[in-house]
Amino acid sequence: MKTIRISVLLFSILLAFACNNKQSDKTKEDESVVKKLLTGKSIFKKQEKAELNKYKSCESIVKEILTTSPRYCQLTKGLNKAVVKNGGQSFGITLEGSPNPLHDKAWGYSETYDFTIYENYMDRQLKTARFSFNPNNKQLYEYDAVNDQLKPIKFDRKLLLKYEALCR
Description:
Layout: H1 2-35, H2 46-52, H3 58-67, H4 70-76, H5 79-85, E1 90-98, H6 101-104, E2 108-109, E3 113-120, E4 125-134, E5 139-144, E6 149-152, H7 159-167
């Protein structure tokens, strides 16, 4: 009877270690997937992996692509001060459409990530600019309402590596 108890205990301990090793192998596989992008080469360093972990969704990386673009910076430089001077409260950015609206908490489905800059007043929200990121061709656009077209704009293309690693 005592031998059976010891055998069961020993078997349980071995089983626990075996399961733990399988989990660490899965973690290593997940890390290697992040490291291997299009070329299959390891391109991320430990610091870059840690930085990639701060993103919660594809939407957060796309939002960074937008908010670091020169055009966005040009439009929003001093905007909060101007809005407050005109009786408003602030300005903001919202995600109106997304390929995965439930996960990204967007208003609706879109094949692109569609952002709107708005000015917030007591009685209304004034939409001042619209931007769209196309995940298929990896291009950021500004919507030109006068000509009813999307115009490609410059952005930090290094952020596309992060987008590819997380959103693939």
